[in-house]
Amino acid sequence: MTILMNKGTGIVTSVPSVAPDDYISLHVLKTKPALREKFGFKDEWVLPIEIIPIINIPEFGDKAAEKVCKDMKIVSQKEK
């Protein structure tokens, strides 16, 4: 299997409003400057990103992932 850098062979989306893993990844990047530096992410690439609500779940609202992470006190992707 080969990845061609000049051709879109696969597209992956991130939905931090409804996917807890995506939400916590963004949250960690936004709150840890050392991690951004480690991976070469500029502040202006990460800090302005805001969650865009796309689905409203009655029990969780329109930012379900944020609510789940806060309610369950999830602070890292390493938590299972």
From TrEMBL:
Keywords: Aminoacyl-tRNA synthetase, ATP-binding, Ligase, Nucleotide-binding, Protein biosynthesis. GO terms for molecular function: aminoacyl-tRNA deacylase activity; ATP binding; leucine-tRNA ligase activity. Belongs to the class-I aminoacyl-tRNA synthetase family. One of its GO terms (biological process) is leucyl-tRNA aminoacylation. InterPro entries: Leu-tRNA-synth_Ia_arc/euk (IPR004493), Val/Leu/Ile-tRNA-synth_edit (IPR009008). It comes from the Eukaryota. It comes from Punica granatum (Pomegranate). This is Uncharacterized protein.
